[in-house]
Amino acid sequence: MQIVGNKARGVELIEDLVGKNPLFVFTISSTKVAEVPGITVAGADPGLVKYTPAADAELVQYGKCRSIAGVPATPDGKPTPALITTTALRLAGIPHLIVDAGAEVKPQTPYIVVGAEGPSENIALKDAATQSTVERIFENAVSLGENLAKASDYLILGESIPGGTTTALAVLCGLGIDARGKVSSSMPVNPHNVKSSVVNEAMKRLNLKIGDLANDPLRAVASLGDLMMIAVAGMSLGARRLAPVLLAGGTQMAAVLALIGKLGGKLTEGIAICTTRYVVEDTSADLKWLVSKIADVPIIATDPGLAHSVKSGLRAYAEGFVKEGVGAGGCVLGAMLQSRFTLTQSHILREIEKNYENLIEKKLQV
Amino acid sequence: MQIVGNKARGVELIEDLVGKNPLFVFTISSTKVAEVPGITVAGADPGLVKYTPAADAELVQYGKCRSIAGVPATPDGKPTPALITTTALRLAGIPHLIVDAGAEVKPQTPYIVVGAEGPSENIALKDAATQSTVERIFENAVSLGENLAKASDYLILGESIPGGTTTALAVLCGLGIDARGKVSSSMPVNPHNVKSSVVNEAMKRLNLKIGDLANDPLRAVASLGDLMMIAVAGMSLGARRLAPVLLAGGTQMAAVLALIGKLGGKLTEGIAICTTRYVVEDTSADLKWLVSKIADVPIIATDPGLAHSVKSGLRAYAEGFVKEGVGAGGCVLGAMLQSRFTLTQSHILREIEKNYENLIEKKLQV
């Protein structure tokens, strides 16, 4: 584990959470930005991308997918990070809930409705959603977050929204942080040009310059963002008074963090971004820089040890593929903390490999 | 508080739960049985009955309704039991989640989808739902219950489904307990004839005698019941291995208890029916007899003290109106237990009256 940014506050938070009982809240969503060619590989076949959030939710809930055969993975066997998440949650007995913030395909699981209907629009062409949709989701999410915080010692908030780093980039730009060239990708060659061009088109469509929406975070989401962000930001705000919050994800959670701050949330103690080392060490992005522009909030990066895996599909995470998602880094941390570190990296890795064999390799052999 | 049935086990359970942190899970649903004239007054105006579950959910979530003006109440001011529930939850800081098991009107709140779509059909005319719908909800609810039990010390499971005592009666009959004349009503003159005639028609339609579905609980729900029952039974089964469960309601929860037993749930320790004294003292029904036919499970009856209220609309509860619903009795118990009895009957009653003034009387004056 490494702490980037405010190390003192990161250590304090971790010490505070040892042995505590978290709740993992997994928000799924879709944006039509994912349909822009070359922008994402979350889901190998472009036609399957829309199933990825639902399939991830099913894997977390039931240990297997229902909306698709097998598990989201590239043809050569690089699996969805939901495999890491579900392994960590099961090992530690950590409960979860799934929130639908506009997934195109709804999961065949229990899930919480917060007022989102369909996916967010492609921001290059039109607003992501109406302002009233964003406000409704925000209000529901705040109230939900308050209740979930009462039911747990702290919240781990993860997401699955293919194409979401592009909307994160756009919202960061709208709020005044020029994040072009800084957001992560699920591919080793980060398609910064494609992302920036979507964002530039969106800003041009709205006649906006960087920072023009710094004082209107809800409008930034409605015009440039996606519904995952406002759901997670709302839950965080509702929970913050009552329990610590781990924003479990990569550069998308930087956009959520910025929104929380703009929406009046305190960004001092009790909040951190938690991700995998593959994100903080990603030389094609800069999470540390992004967070430093927002607030003095620590980034906690866990290491699931995939670099040493016997499975090439898992080693790929350390080679620039996938890297993070579905709150994987945060759930690994939660499992280690809840178990008071009796669940070690090698223990978790062994179990991830076992699940990989059962869920991916057996299917590839068929 | 009084304990009916297995007193020793009731006392043991209560002692076990003092100071613990419950989660209230509120399941809303609709059955077209509610449209049978004279069967329910859950919602004063027949045209408003379909809004009652959603309005109850909104009152619990936000302290005010959104789908209707004001609060569900009869024209002379007898309020929905959601008023008691929300008061108890807020006083004690108990978290809640709302589950939609086929409410006709969806609430303007966060709520959990478990695979139900519309309301259950009128069982006199056709099956309540398809077998596959019932199986899907059951499986989702079991998995949900497991997760919710991990996130709390115990679950309080309440419901709102106008017309639900009639489907409870039908399912009890299908499972082998002739409950005719024994189920409660929200009215002082219990329309047993209307209920029994719906059930007799349903049994005749299916060519069933009492007890014919004793070995097929899922079919009993699909043909004679409603989707609330299977959602609550499923959550109970999922939770049971991990945490105690309070079935918070009147005679409808007897049907749920019978289903839990038939579906393989242990009905020994860690489970109770929890309701108000107005239900256990209801001379037009017999909850004690019903439960005794199912299992040796205690009934814990709380007294919110409404008999002594200065408000006639609240005193009506002690005069045979409304009596229970929305897990009111269970939430009062949960509040007292969580506060280690520092929240007393008079404290809770005072707060209920204050909320009654703000939500009902002010509206009646307009």
Question: What does this protein structure show overall?
Answer:
2 copies of one chain form a homodimer. In chain A, helix 3 packs parallel to helix 13 and helix 4 crosses helix 7. With 366 residues, chain A is of the alpha/beta class. Chain A contains 14 helices and 8 strands. Chain A has one domain: Nicotinate-nucleotide-dimethylbenzimidazole phosphoribosyltransferase (CobT), large domain (Rossmann fold), CATH 3.40.50.10210. An 8-stranded mixed β-sheet of chain A has the order 1-8-7-6-5-2-3-4, with helices on both faces. The interface between A and B is medium-sized, with 31 and 31 residues. Strand 4 of chain A pairs antiparallel with strand 4 of chain B, so a sheet runs across the interface.
Give the structural class of chain A.
alpha/beta
Radius of gyration of chain A: 18 Å
Q: Give the distance, in angstroms, between the N- and C-terminal Cα atoms of chain A.
A: 37 Å
Helix tally of chain A equals: 14
Largest interface: A-B, 31 and 31 residues
The top-level CATH class of chain A is: Alpha Beta
Mean pLDDT of chain A: 94
* Order of H and E elements of chain A: EHEHHEEHEHHHHEHEHHEHHH
Spatially, the strands of the biggest sheet of chain A line up as 1-8-7-6-5-2-3-4
Q: What proportion strand of chain A?
A: 5-15%
What's a quick, concise take on this entry?
Chain A has 366 residues and is α/β, with parallel strands linked by helices. Chain A is built from 14 helices and 8 strands.
